Amino acid sequence: MRWWDIAPVMELELRLFPEDAWSTGMYWSELAETHPGGTRHYTVATTPDGAVAGYAGLMVVAGEGDVQTIAVDERLQGAGLGAVLLTDLIRESARRGCTELLLEVRVDNPRAQRLYERFGFEPVGIRRGYYQPADVDALVMRLDHPSTDPKTDVMKDPRHG
Q1: What is the CATH number of the domain that holds 46?
Q2: Which of 20, 23, 111, 156 falls between 20 and 30 A from 69, CA-CA?
Q3: How crowded is residue 133: how many other Cβ atoms within 10 Å of its Cβ?
Q4: Looking at the domain assignment, is residue 141 inside a domain?
Q5: What SS3 string covers the chain?
Q6: Strand partners, 22
Q7: Residues 130, 99, 113, 49: is their CA dihedral positive or negative?
Q8: What is the pTM assigned to this prediction?
Q9: What is the number of domains present in the chain?
Q10: pLDDT per position in the chain (161 positions), as tens?
Q11: Pick the catalytic residue: 27, 42, 116, 131?
Q12: Is 71 among the domain residues?
């Protein structure tokens, strides 16, 4: 993700997360930490005509990774793009030496929970009222050992172990 992606990312963000969308300023702050040696990694997926179809972000601090965001245009959901974005984050967390990868997902989003479970994430707790202003709880999930070999950058297929 680059600065010129922020406007189309924000269009998608506001459409997908109308109640708890990040602000433009939050994305600028996140991108400021994507430099070499920075704590963030952000990526976008685009359609053949260049439109932003999805995006994802990762924070890595002291060997622990946290999925900051992952989103796919609702018109393209179910086509595997979420898996592609998540694969990118898992690979990057492994490349940066993470021993675990955490994320929060809305308790009322079973589709996303199933995606994370396919990749080996397991529920470890609940954050009450995490998503505001809707006051929706977050399920905290953890992947203890990222399923990417950072030496070969080969992702194991989560459907086949």
Answers
A1: 3.40.630.30
A2: 156
A3: 8
A4: yes
A5: CCHHHHHHHHHHHHHHCCCCCCCHHHHHHHHCCCCCCCCEEEEEEECCCCCEEEEEEEEEECCEEEEEEEEECHHHCCCCHHHHHHHHHHHHHHHCCCCEEEEEEECCCHHHHHHHHHCCCEEEEEEEEEECCCCEEEEEEEECCCCEECCCCEECCCCCC
A6: none
A7: positive
A8: 0.87
A9: 1
A10: 999 999 999 999 999 999 889 999 999 999 999 998 899 999 999 999 999 999 999 999 988 999 999 999 999 998 899 999 999 999 999 999 999 999 999 999 999 999 999 999 999 999 999 988 889 999 999 998 655 444 444 445 444 44
A11: 116
A12: yes
Are 143 and 121 a contacting pair, CB within 8 Å?
yes
- Cα–Cα distance between 121 and 81 in angstroms, integer? 18
Residue found by looking up tokens 């600065």 in the block: 3
Under a CB-based contact definition with an 8 Å cutoff, are residues 83 and 113 in contact? Answer: no
Q: 160 in a domain, yes or no?
A: no
Given 42, 104, 130, 131, the catalytic residue: 104
Residue the block writes with tokens 């924070």: 59
C-alpha pair distances (Å), 32 with each of 11, 17, 54, 90, 131? 20, 23, 20, 21, 24
Tell me if 161 is assigned to some domain.
Answer: no
| Catalytic status, residue 104 | yes
Tokens encoding 111: 């589709």
Q: Which tokens sit at 138?
A: 């977050």
Omega within 30 of 0 (cis) for the link into 110 = no
